[in-house]
Design goal:
globular; 2 helices; alpha+beta
Amino acid sequence: MDRTSVSSSNIGAIGYEAETQTLEIEFLNGSVYQYTGVSVEEYEAMMNADSKGKYFNANIKNRYPFTKL
């Protein structure tokens, strides 16, 4: 999955695959997580958020099933 670099104190890059509703987060510490069942609207809202980390913590983390890659 292609990821887009983002400006964040905790997140390095974000990827999304609409067909499978999979959100991929690459953290600055090198870990990568995939979150499933994430709508395209949720992804777009995260990408447009002033703080990607705050959006992630409030709306993605602990709300969607995930796998650490």
